[in-house]
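Weekly modeling sync, notes
Attendees: S.R. (lead), two postdocs, one rotation student

Agenda item 3: backlog of single-chain predictions. S.R. asked that every request posted to the team notebook include the full sequence so nobody has to chase files. The rotation student volunteered to paste the first one in as an example of the format we agreed on. Action items at the bottom.

Example entry:
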Amino acid sequence: MGNDGGSIPTRRELVKEAAKDPNNTQVKETQNEKLQYYWSHCSLSQKPLSPPIVSDSTGNLYNKDAVLENLLNTSKDNQDGNVAGNKRTSGTIKSLRDVAEVRFSIDREGEEDSKTRQNELRLVCPVTGKRLGPGVKAVYLVPCGHAFAETAVREMPGEQCLECNESYSTENVIPILPVSAADKDRLRDRLSKLQSEGFTHSLKKTPGSSKKRKQARTNKETEAADRLDQVAGPSLSSKEPRLETSSDAIRNEDTAALTAKVLAEQEDRNKRRKMAPNENLKGLFSWSNGMAGKQSDFMTRGFSIPSGAKR
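Predicted structure, as returned to the notebook:
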C-alpha cells in the first residue's frame, strides 16, 4: 500500500461502531408509523381497509373478504396435505366465528380533505367526533361491534351501547390494535375463559362444544360411580343384592345407592311372598266338614250347595 496514489485506511475507518439502542423518541416514532399503517391497511392482505371490517380476539383489523379468502385457502391446503394452516393470522382465526364485525363511523366530509391520503378511510368516534387512529385509543364492543373512543366508553352511563342500546359487559370491551402488555394479557385471558366455556371471540358457541361438555360430564359421573364402587362395593355386594342393569346405568352416587337399597328390599319382599301361603286359594276349598269333600264331586268341590237345590 502506498506509492500507488491511493490512501491508507486507518483502524477507525475499518472498524464499525456497534449499533446504539433507540431512544424513547425513536421507539415512539417507529410504533406510531406501524400503527398508522395497520389503522389504514388490512393486517392479512396488506390492502387498504374497506367495509366490512372485522377484528379478531387480539384487536387486529382485517378486510372480511381477505379473511374469507384465507379460510378457503387454509381448508384447501389442509385437504392437499400442506402445512400452511393459519400462520398468517397466528392461529387466531379458524372460522368466521373467531372474528367480529367492527362497525366504524366514517366521516364522509373529511375524506374529501386534501390532507387525507388517497384510499384511506376517515374513522371517527360517533360520541366525541375524534378521529380514531394512533393518537386516540379506540375500542369496540362485542357482540354489537360499534367502535368508540375509550374515553367515551369509560364515561358511558351503564353498560349499554349508545348506538344500538345493546347491553355488554366490561370484559367484552376490546381495544383496537393494543400496544400495552396489560391489554394484550387481558385479551389472552378473555379468550382462554371463553374457550373453556365453549364460546368464541364473537360470543358464538364453538362447533361441537355441547358434545364435549356432555362427554366431560359423563366422564366425571363415571369416575364418581367408580369411586363409590370401590368404597361401598363389597358391603353392597354381600348384604344388599343389586341389579347391574339398573343401578350401574345411574352415575349419580346418591341415586345409585338409593336405587340399590330399594331393589334389595323389593327382592326380599318377593321372596317372602313366594314362601307364604296364598290367602286367595284358601277360599276355594272348604275343610270344615271332612265328608263334604268326599260327597261332592270334583266339579263342585270347594263350593257349598244349598240343601233345597236339586242335584
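Discussion: group reviewed the output briefly. DSSP finds eleven helices and eight strands in the chain.
Action items: rotation student to repeat for the remaining queue; S.R. to check formatting next week.
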